[in-house]
Structures are given as C-alpha cells and as structure tokens.
Design brief:
By secondary structure, the protein is an alpha/beta fold. Helix content is about 35%, strand content about 20%. It is built from 14 helices and 22 strands. The chain has helices spanning about 5-10, 50-70, 75-90, 90-105, 105-125, 165-175, 190-205, 220-230, 245-255, 280-290, 310-320, 340-355, 410-420, 435-440; strands spanning about 15, 30-35, 45-50, 135, 145-150, 155-160, 180-185, 215, 235-240, 260-265, 270, 300-305, 360-365, 385, 400-410, 425, 425-430, 450-455, 465, 470, 475-480, 485-495. A seven-stranded mixed beta sheet has the order 13-14-15-12-11-17-18, with helices on both faces. A five-stranded parallel beta sheet has the order 8-7-6-9-10, with helices on both faces. α9 links the parallel β9 (about 235-240) and β10 (about 260-265). α3 packs antiparallel against α5 (about 105-125) and α4 (about 90-105) runs antiparallel to α7. The longest helix has 21 residues, at about 105-125. The radius of gyration is 24 Å and the shape is globular. The termini are far apart. The model has no long low-confidence stretch (mean pLDDT about 95). The chain binds nicotinamide-adenine-dinucleotide. The site of nicotinamide-adenine-dinucleotide has 30 residues, from α8 and α9.
Length: about 500
C-alpha cells in the first residue's frame, strides 16, 4: 500500500486543519507545519496549528459538551467506546501503517500500537459498568456512608511522538466512560496519526449523537500545550513526554492547584543473574534495547550482569547486535528503523561522545548510516558500551539505541545499581532462582513502577496500571484502578434517623 493511498484512506489531505471539536474541523489562522516521515525524510502533509481563537472555541465547546455527557449513563458512554473499538479494528491496517510511516517504528509495532487501542477500548467498555465506590459503616446510628465517583470535566491530554495514538486512547477511552470530555494535543512530530484517529472516530460520534466537544483536538508545539496547562477550566492534565516537559507542566498546573498525571522518561535496567536462562534473557535484552530504535519510555538502557556470566552474555549480545538489520521500518526484515528526526540523531551522537569522554568502553560502535535507503539521515546503528552506573551520561535518558552494560557481584549491589538513577519506570530481572526473583520484587527490591521477572522492560499489557516513580512522574494510566485519576471522589453521609448525633460524640444543644 503506497503512503498516498494510506493517507487518503484515513482522510488526510495535503493541508489539514489541526483543530477539531469531534466531528467538525475548525479553520484557524495558525501557522502551518509539516509532518516529515523519518522513513525517507519526505513531507507527508501539512497541518494548521491551533491559534488562541481556535483554542477558545474548542474549550467552549468541550465545556458545553461536558454538561450533557456527564448525564449519560456510564454504560451508554461505554457503548460508544465499544463502537470506536470496532472502527479501529476495521482501520487497524491503515492506521498501523501510518503510525510506522510518520513515527518510524516497525510495521509490527505500528499494528501493535493500534491493537493496544482496541484492547483499551474493550477494557473501558467493561469498566463502564464497574466505576465502583466503597460503602463505609457509620459510627452514628441510622446513618449510611458511601463514596461515589463523579467525572472531573475537561481532561487535557498532551502526548509524545513515540506512541502517537495509543496514549490518546489510554487516556480518552477511560476518561470518556468516566464522563469526562477530552482535548488532545498530540506531539507536533506526529500530527497526522492524530488527525486519522479523529477521522476514524467522527462517524461513530455522529451516529450516536454524542455531544460535539466530547472529543477535541488542538495541534502545535509547546505553546499550544501551554494553553491547556494554564487553563483553569481544565482540571486534569495528563502529560506524556520528557522529564523536562513534566517538570514544567507540574509547576504550571500545580501553581493553579490543578491535577496532573505525568508519564515521563525512564532509564530502565535488566539484571542478568548467574541463574538466568541466558538465551531467553538475550531476546528480552536485544528487543528491549533496539525495538522502536530505542525510543520507548520502557526501552532497556542498562544491563547489569553477574560477574560469573558477564563475558559469556557480553559475547552473546555483541553477536546478536551484529545480526541486526537497520532499514525501512515497513520492511518486515528490518529490526531497527530510524530515529524520529535529526535532533534525535544529534542527541544520540552527543551521548556517544559523552560516554566515551567519561571512559566508556565501546563494544559495538555507533554511527549514522548513509547511502541508499538511509536518505532521511535518521538511521543510526545500535551500540553498546561498558560503563559505570555512576557516569553522568548513564544517569540520563538518551532516546536512542545506546545500551550500557555493567557488572555486579551480589544481588543487593545489582538492585542498588538498578535503583540508583533519577528515573523509576520499568525494571526486570532474569533468574530462575525464586529467592532472587522475590527479593527483586520485595520492598527492598526494584523502586520502579514496573518490575518484571523473566520478561524484559518494554512491552506492557493494558490490564495493569502503567507508570513510574521518581522523575518518571508518579502517574498511572491504562488498566487496574487508573480510572480513579479521571474522576473526583465524593464521600456521602446520609442520616435516615430522627435525631442529629454528631461525629466523635460531640454534644451541641440549642
Ligand atoms: P517531549 O517532552 O519533547 O514532548 C512531549 C509533549 O509535550 C509534546 O506534545 C510537546 O509538544 C509537549 N510539551 C513540551 N513541553 C511542554 C510544555 N512546557 N508545556 C506543555 N506541553 C509541552 O517528549 P517527546 O520527545 O515527544 O517524547 C519522548 C519522551 O517521552 C521520552 O522522555 C520518553 O521516555 C517519554 N515517554 C514517556 C512515557 C511514559 O509512559 N512514561 C511514554 C512515552 C514517552
């Protein structure tokens, strides 16, 4: 399927409005920006940025929609999400291909991302009948206490380039069944996949008479994101991106005492024990390190290897890296596609210089690929360095396929190294020893939001709560009880007796 067919199948034109209230595209006076594909560097299409007037129109519509949408029974809202899941099933091929083209991840991963949207839709449908609150026994006679969960209002979703569509669905599908309305600001690096999602969803919204404004889109860079974060009418900002962005957003939203749900950078490690199944571990490490060209928040960036298997595992890693095919992500033979843009390539090269300057030992050399098939200038070689965990550059998340390996003697030391970084997203241990596995998962084990045994750091399922600690931001999205972040809790006490006893036995008479 040629890219022009994919774009037209998904309703993308040469120049597109980037501002929508769900079924209507607004024309704004904002400047145009281009979507470049890192696959070959060409321009896919142009998008008009949301300007201040367009933003005000969107928020006004979203507010009006909320007044109506919150009164729909949650299972009816779930029914709309169910139909959206069906529409995504029908469009999985085209949308997955566009994700690959625009973002540069492999076709398998592009389809996988759309599958994740379908999975979260299914989850949200079930959830729409399970927004449970607790009942509590009152200390007063003939009193009933309970909790209920109410929708929050407008949820502002700011997303990163590397999961250009799934993160929107994690947030909006759950927020919608909770009764919220959403305004999405996708990454300025991947605007077209967002437009495609809106085109796929719009017929479903129309057919179900969903109030205009439940699903809104604003497009552009940081400035457009800041319109959302500064806006007191937006009670929750759910932001996915770098720690730098998260700190800026937390300060702005915190200043107005809004809520923020932050999903930020990771610096994920795998511990390889002397009792690991090394062949299994190898697949987990290599997929984790080079998948999505090292541009997943859960990418494996560090491997901490027991000294007794260090040389053997190192050799296996180096041999595996020599087999990697780097090339067009739409070609199923490629293991590694391009980085998102030239800035990302510059950051990759800078980190390689930095690790060398700190004394890192190069095991597999990096570099930028040139020549036929690599014209975009965004294809780089995955590389490996032997390092110390304390190196400044190792403490930092470089969003590229640079893998750091290090040695340990005792499990406690390995866990301390794994935890000794500012970020706390994903972690893993490969071991067949139950005591080691349980130690890693215990209170004295990994300090990350995600801790796996005999599975790599990347590739989470939607059923669990996803997110991390420390500089990863503390947010939880997707499954489990993450829905609570999209609602406000109300405690209700109801007196069905004929007197007014006060709590704590306080006497008051008039
Ligand atoms: P980025 O921080 O450059 O941008 C993310 C989004 O934030 C974009 O939409 C951008 O326009 C917006 N933005 C940036 N500064 C802003 C500000 N001050 N106010 C409002 N909006 C602002 O990140 P990126 O390069 O697109 O993505 C890569 C980063 O995202 C990595 O650090 C990665 O680990 C992280 N990430 C984390 C998760 C997670 O779940 N923890 C998932 C995906 C990506």
């Amino acid at each position: 399927m040629h890219i022009s067919e994919i774009l037209s199948a998904l309703g993308i034109k040469e120049t597109n409005s980037g501002t929508s209230t769900g079924t209507q595209w607004l024309s704004t006076t904002g400047t145009e920006f281009c979507s470049y594909t890192p696959v070959d560097g060409s321009v896919l299409a142009k998008v008009t940025m949301t300007d201040a007037a367009g933003y005000q129109a969107v928020v006004g519509q979203a507010n009006a929609a909320f007044a109506e949408w919150r009164m729909w029974p949650a299972p009816k809202r779930g029914e709309v999400v169910r139909q959206i899941g069906e529409a995504l099933r029908k469009n999985k091929d085209a949308l997955g291909r566009l994700v690959s083209y625009e973002m540069g991840k492999s076709l398998q991963e592009g389809w996988g991302e759309v599958q994740e949207m379908i999975d979260i839709a299914d989850f949200a449908v079930g959830l729409s009948r399970q927004l449970y609150g607790l009942t509590i026994h009152s200390e007063r006679p003939m009193h009933r206490m309970y909790e209920q969960w109410h929708p929050l209002g407008i949820v502002g979703i700011i997303s990163a380039f590397n999961f250009p569509v799934a993160v929107w669905s994690w947030n909006s599908f759950i927020a919608w069944v909770c009764g919220d309305v959403c305004i999405w600001k996708p990454s300025e690096k991947t605007p077209l996949t967002a437009l495609a999602c809106f085109n796929i969803v719009s017929d479903i919204l129309k057919a179900n008479n969903v109030p205009e404004g439940v699903n809104c889109l604003v497009s552009g860079g940081r400035e457009v994101g800041e319109m959302l974060t500064n806006d007191v009418r937006v009670p929750l900002i759910s932001a996915t991106g770098s720690t730098r962005m998260g700190k800026a957003i937390a300060a702005v939203v915190g200043q107005r005492l809004g809520k923020s749900l932050l999903e930020l950078g990771g610096n994920n490690a795998i511990i390889i024990s002397k009792e690991a199944d090394l062949n299994m571990a190898l697949i987990g490490c290599v997929f984790g390190a080079v998948g999505t060209a090292g541009q997943r928040c859960t990418t494996t960036r560090r491997i901490i290897i027991h000294e007794s298997v260090y040389d053997t595992f190192k050799e296996k890693l180096v041999a595996a890296y020599q087999q990697l095919v780097i090339g067009n992500p739409l070609d199923e033979k490629s293991h590694v596609g391009p980085l998102i843009d030239k800035d990302a390539v510059a950051a990759y090269l800078h980190s390689i210089e930095a690790v060398k300057a700190e004394g890192g030992n190069e095991l597999v050399a990096g570099g930028v690929l040139e020549g036929a098939g690599y014209e975009s200038g965004c294809y780089v070689k995955p590389c490996i360095f032997e390092v110390q965990n304390s190196f400044k550059i190792v403490q930092h998340e470089t969003f590229a396929p640079i893998l750091y390996i290090m040695k340990y003697a005792k499990l406690e030391e390995a866990i301390a190294m794994q935890n000794d970084v500012p970020q706390g997203l994903s972690s893993a241990i490969f071991t067949l020893n139950m005591r080691e596995a349980e130690t890693f998962l215990s209170h004295k084990g990994s300090d990350c939001g995600i801790a796996n045994v005999n599975i790599g750091t990347s590739g989470a399922e939607i059923g669990g709560a996803f997110g991390g600690e420390k500089e990863t931001g503390g947010g939880r999205e997707s499954g489990s009880d993450s829905w609570k972040a999209y609602m406000r809790r109300q405690t209700n006490t109801l007196n069905w007796g004929d007197s007014l006893p006060l709590a704590q036995g306080i006497k008051f008479t008039v």
